[in-house]
Amino acid sequence: MKFFHAFLAFATGILLAVAPVRAVELSIVSGDTGNGIKVLSEILDLYEKKSGNKVDIVVIPPSTTDQFGQYRLWLAAGSSDIDVYQTDVIWAPQLASQLVDLTEATRDVVGEHFPSIIQSQTVNGRLVALPIFTDAPALYYRKDLLTKYGAKVPATWKELQDTARLVMDKERAAGNRDIWGFVFQGNAYEGLTCNALEWVMSKGGGGIIEPDGRISINNPQSAAAIEMVKGWIGTIAPPGVLAYQEEEARGVWQTGNAVFMRNWPYAYALGNSENSPIKGKFDVAPLPAGDGGHPVATLGGWNLAVSKYSKHPNAAIDLVKFIASREMQKYRTLKTSNLPTIAALYDDPDIARQQPIVPRWKPIFLNAQPRPSATARIKYNEASSQFWTAVHNTLSGNGTAADNLADLEARLTRLKGKGW
Ligand code: GLC
């Protein structure tokens, strides 16, 4: 009997030693923009091979505003269906309490990333998300068309307006009936907040809500900036631009139907892809400045966070570290022209050769303007939605910029009064 017990213990030991660590099934949620999901699934294939774990991608719509709404529902329900969330740079203060603190687990790698980005994802001393790429927009322009009409790359919004009009009119007269001058993100969502912050701030109208909490948006420069853009709707920009997000703008641009586009760096790789009609015909420049002002680029970017409700937090952290790693950021950048968050990759010769926008965009990203999410904190989404609504109303002909901004100031003041 004794022998039997000893044998049983020995056999169990062997079994435990040879049996693989039980594979875990994880899920990651991500919006679908450009070839982002395709590249994520390639990265996950590599992870599955390395770890033995399995990862499902839950694909949701590309709008960051829609994603935020959906994330809030999942988190409010304490759902364990999602282990890893892909999060926008602006969300950390609002989601922090439902995300795992990654400080300890990422000590070995956190120093590779730009400190400002790590800072933006740190709330009350807790690192709630690890960055996978950063974002700063570009003015995309058609080199071939500017050369054809002897026009130069616009340095101010006024020059952009004049050149867009000139090239568009001449091209249309020559039979290119579908061409427009400028496309951007005019839909009523977070993307419009990014675009409008650039118009307003570059024209001297300030940052909507200042770092000291002052609500600064209601001023004549901001109103003039938004009225300027209203003048573009239906003239140099298609009326439909009021419903465009990133992908709709890129759709018009990449089929060759726009002279200029405001978009993030992801559109660079796609525009130069094999079957793109504009491959080799375009380049990028910083966004235009206001007259006498300076150009402003809104800071964007994406991160990975582990849900507090995950049943496999350690495996989920392992996955996050894998996707955010230097090797995988390089892989992503080569395929998508997303800007890495690891400083060393800006000196990588493969990246410089295959995606030259990346080293060129380092100073633009480093000087990019954050949205007031660290100031409005848990109220940021509401504040931003009030802002984009005021702008969208004005662009749609629903009230003047001056009236809509006065109304916005009153709304933001009430919101601030409730505490942020
Ligand atoms: C990009 C940016 C993100 C921003 C969004 C707006 O995805 O990276 O920060 O909120 O665009 O549409």
What's the short story on this structure?
The protein has 420 residues and is an alpha/beta fold. It has helices spanning 2-18, 36-51, 64-76, 92-95, 115-120, 143-148, 157-173, 190-202, 220-230, 246-254, 266-271, 313-324, 326-336, 349-354, 357-366, 373-376, 380-395, 401-417; strands spanning 25-31, 54-60, 84-88, 122-123, 126-127, 130-135, 138-142, 180-183, 258-263, 282-285, 300-306. Helix 2 (36-51) links the parallel strand 1 and strand 2.
Describe this structure in words.
There is one protein chain. This protein is α/β, with parallel strands linked by helices and 420 residues long. It folds into 2 domains: 19-135 and 300-366, Periplasmic binding protein-like II (D-Maltodextrin-Binding Protein, domain 2); 138-298 and 373-416, D-Maltodextrin-Binding Protein, domain 2 (3-Layer(aba) Sandwich). It has 18 helices and 11 strands. It has helices at residues 2-18, 36-51, 64-76, 92-95, 115-120, 143-148, 157-173, 190-202, 220-230, 246-254, 266-271, 313-324, 326-336, 349-354, 357-366, 373-376, 380-395, 401-417; strands at residues 25-31, 54-60, 84-88, 122-123, 126-127, 130-135, 138-142, 180-183, 258-263, 282-285, 300-306. Strand 4 and strand 5 (126-127) form a beta hairpin. Alpha-D-glucopyranose binds at residues 64, 88-90, 135, 190-191, 194, 246, 264, 300-302.
